[in-house]
Amino acid sequence: MPVAASALYRLATSLWLGGMVVFTFVMTPIIFKAYGRDAAGAIVGTMMPTYFRYSVAMIAVALVARLLAGQAGPGVRRVVGTALLASALFVSAFHAFVLLPQVESVKKSVVSFETTPKDDPARRAFSRLHGVSMALNLLLILEGIVLIAGIDWFSD
User: Which of 153, 155, 151, 147 is nearest to 12 (CA)?
Assistant: First the structure.
C-alpha cells in the first residue's frame, strides 16, 4: 500500500500543480489576448468553479495518499510537507467555496469591465477580491513547487 499511495500522492500533486500552472500562465493569458475583456472574463469565469474544485480534489487526494504512504512523519521535511499540503487544502477550499462566490456576486453588478469606470464601487470591490484571489492562487502554486521540488525530493 505505501508504494501505491506514494505514487498516487506524486501523481495528484503533479496534476494539481500542473493544472494550476497551465490555467494561470497559459490558458488565461491566451483567452484574454484572443477576446475582449468582457468576453474573456466570461469565459474564464465559467471555468473558475471547475478549476478551483479540481484543485481541492487533487490536494485532498494528495493529502490522503501522503498519509497512507507514511510520508507524514517523523522528520522535519515530512512534517513540513504535510503541513504545506494541509495549508494548501485549506486555502484552496476557501478559494473555491468562500472567495469565488463573493467574486461572482460582485462581478454580476459590473455591467461591463470595458465601459464601467475603474472608480465604480462595484468594479473596485471586484478588483480587490480579484487581487486576493490572484495572491492566493500564486501562494498555492508556490506551495506546490515547494512540495515537489523542495520538500519531497530530499529525505530527512
Answer: 147
Give domain status of residue 95, yes or no: yes
Angle at 55 between CA 152 and CA 53, to 5 degrees: 160
Q: Is the peptide bond before 2 cis (omega within 30 degrees of 0)?
A: no
Residue tagged 498516487 (cell numbers): 8
For the chain, how many structural domains are there in total?
1
Residue with cell 500562465: 25
Residue 149's pLDDT band (cuts 50, 70, 90): confident
Taking alpha carbons only, the member of 8, 10, 5 closest to residue 81 is 10
Neighbours of 85 (CB within 10 A): 28
66: which 3 cell numbers? Answer: 501522503
pLDDT in tens, 113-122: 999 999 999 9
Residue 19 lies in a domain: yes
Please give the residue range of the domain that contains residue 121.
Answer: 2-151
